[in-house]
Amino acid sequence: MIAAAFFCLLPIVSCRGRQPKSADRNVTISFVGWGSGSTMETRKVKVLLEEFTARTGIRVNYIVGPESADDRLALYQQWFQRKSETPDVLNMDTVWPGLFADDLVDLIPYFGQNLGRISARAVQGDMVKGKLVAMPFNLQVGVLYYRSDLLKKYGFLHPPRTWEELVKMAARIQQGERAKGNKDFWGFVWQGAPYEGLTCNALEWQASYGGGTILEQNGVVSVDNPKTIRALKMAKSWIGTISPPSVLTFMEEDDRSMWDKGNVAFRRDWTWRGTPFGKLQEAGAGDTAIALLPQDGTEATTLGGESLAISRYSRYPRESAELIRYLTSRDMQFKLWQDESLLPVIREFYDDPKYFELRPELAELKVLLTTGGTARPSAVSGKRYPEVSRAYYTAVHSALAGQTTVEQAMSGLQTELVRITGLPPGKPNSSGDNILK
Fold first, then answer.
1. How many structural domains compose the chain?
2. Which of 209, 243, 216, 223 has the alpha carbon at shortest distance from 409?
3. Of 93, 298, 322, 410, whose CB neighbour count within 10 A is largest?
4. Model's pTM, two decimal places?
5. How far is 290 from 278, CA to CA, in rounded Å?
C-alpha cells in the first residue's frame, strides 16, 4: 500500500511561494524517534526507516531517547543550548513546540500547501507566531484498558463508568484471582512516578471531579480546591489496596510489563499502547478491551500526541523534511494506525467511519479526539510549562506517598504556582469550559 501511494518525494511549494531545494540522497540524518524504546518498538521503527532509505537513499541514524518525558525534555534542552548539529529530526510532545520554537525550522516552506489535510486542532498546537515549528504526527488520549475475559468471569456486564465502580470491580477481581493462586495479581495500575506521566494521570482525576485543570483558561491558579483534594484522596486510597505500593515508581513500561504478564485487571495508558485487534500477544494474558476513563461527573481524559520537528542547527533540513513527509504521509499514517494503534492526524480518518472498523473499541473516542478532551495547561503557562508540571507532579507524588497531607500539598502547590506563573489564585471552572474544545 505504501509503495503504491507513497507521497511523491518532490518538494512541496509553500503557501508563501518558496520552494525548498531538492534533498541530497547521499547523507545520513539523525532522528530521535517515538515510543518507549523497547526492543520490539525499536525494531519496528528501524524497519520503517530502512524502507525510507531504500526509497530515498537518505540514511537515518535512529536515536532511542529516554522513556521519561522529563529526561527527554532535558536532553533536548542540552542539545539546543549547545546548538548541536545532531539530532536533525526530533519527536516532540504536543506541549513542547512552543518551548523550543526559536530552535526549530519553520516547516511552512515544506508543508504549507499540505496542511489542509491535517486536523486543524493538531496544527494549531504546532503554530508559533505564524510559523509551523513542528508537523503533527499522531494524536493520543488517556484510556482505560481492561480484561474483558475477567469482567465476564466475575459477572460484570460493562467496564466501570465511575471511579467508585472501578474500585469495586478491581477489588473483586483481585480478590478472586489471588484466591485462585495468582498472588501477584493487582486490580489497577497507572503511571505514578514523579514525571510528566503523573501530571497526565492526576489531571484526569481532578478534572473528572470538577476540580479544574491546574491553571484555568481565564488565567488563574485553581489547584487548591475541595474537588481536587477529594480526587487525590481517592487515588491515594488505591495504593496498597487495588494498586501496588510500587505504582509510585511506575512509568508506562512498568505497568505494561505487569499487564503483559496477565497480572492486572485494569490499566490506565495511552491509546497507542494497545495491541492491534484487541488481543494481547503474550500467552495467558487474556482478552483486552478499551474504554473511556471513569469519571465522577465530568468526562476527562488528557490529550496527548506527538509532532516531528527539525532542529535549526541541522546541516540537512531538506533531507530531514523528506523523513517527516514520509512519516506523515497518508499511507504511513494508516499503516501506523493498523500496526501500532497510533491515531492519525489527517482529517480524512475522522470524517469516514470505515477507518475505525479495524479498532471498533476506539470508535467512541472519536468525539474526544475531534472536539473534546482535557488539555494540559501549556497554553496558559507558556514557556513556564515545564516548571508548572514539575511542581504539580512533585506535590501530587508527595501527597500520594504520604510524605504530606493532600491538603498541605495542594496549599503549598498553589503558592508555588502563583510564584512560577505570576497568575493570581482563583477557582476552577466547573462549567466545562476548562475542557478543550
1. 2
2. 223
3. 322
4. 0.86
5. 8
